[in-house]
Write a structure and sequence with these properties.
Blueprint lengths: L5 H18 L6 H8 L3 H7 L3 H26 L6 H13 L2 H7 L4 H6 L2 H4 L3 H27 L6 H22 L4 H17 L1
């Protein structure tokens, strides 16, 4: 019977994602991935046509996981009827998981991918843009509902939604540059308190 290669493929993707986040795509050779994953070149090329194909695969999987986290937070707060309370709970959802998130990864794959020009033409940038736009649309809807409910004008909801997303990415940079994983929780806490103050 043919063996199911899915676990091996997932292991390669797990390892490659961690290495690209930690060292960058250029410094992550196929041999380095194979050594860390404990697998063979034959197994690698069974699942991926090239290193570029691997880059697209890890970006696609990471973006899908990112959007899944967004939907998880939306689902977890869906029963909250007051739009302001729901928005605050949405931010708190990630704030409370900030330490866990940073324990899983030292930075964001998006940053690693977008800083390497050779990856831009592989379709990876489009995957990232689609994920960011998904976040923008959902957070903007939460913000628009919250500001309307309180009769508060905080500006363009889409721009504010981008600011929320930028808080995540900026916190990743702070964590990485200082070596302290506490910035994610701290910065999301600041964002939550600012929203609470602005929306009463």
């Amino acid at each position: 019977m043919p063996r199911n290669g899915a676990p091996n493929r997932e292991r390669i993707l797990d390892v490659a994602t961690g290495l690209v986040i930690e060292y960058g795509f250029a410094a992550t050779s196929v041999d380095r991935v194979l050594a860390a994953a404990g697998t063979s070149k034959g197994a690698f090329f069974h699942h991926f046509d090239s290193k570029s194909d691997l880059a697209r695969a890890i970006t696609e999987r990471y973006a899908a996981g990112d959007i899944a986290q967004l939907h998880e937070a939306l689902e977890a707060t869906s029963a909250i009827h007051d739009p302001v309370d729901r928005l605050i709970a949405f931010v708190r959802f990630f704030e409370e998981r900030g330490d866990e998130l940073m324990a899983e990864q030292s930075s964001c794959l998006y940053i690693s991918v977008l800083t390497e020009q050779q990856l831009i033409g592989l379709g990876t940038a489009e995957l990232i843009t689609a994920a960011i736009e998904a976040w923008r649309a959902e957070i903007a809807a939460l913000l628009e509902a919250a500001t309307s409910a309180r009769g508060v004008d905080l500006g363009d909801p889409a721009v504010l939604a981008d600011h929320v997303f930028v808080t995540f990415e900026g916190a990743f940079l702070l964590c990485r540059s200082t070596g302290s994983p506490t910035h994610m929780r701290a910065q999301l806490g600041v964002l939550r308190r600012l929203l609470e103050a602005a929306l009463g």
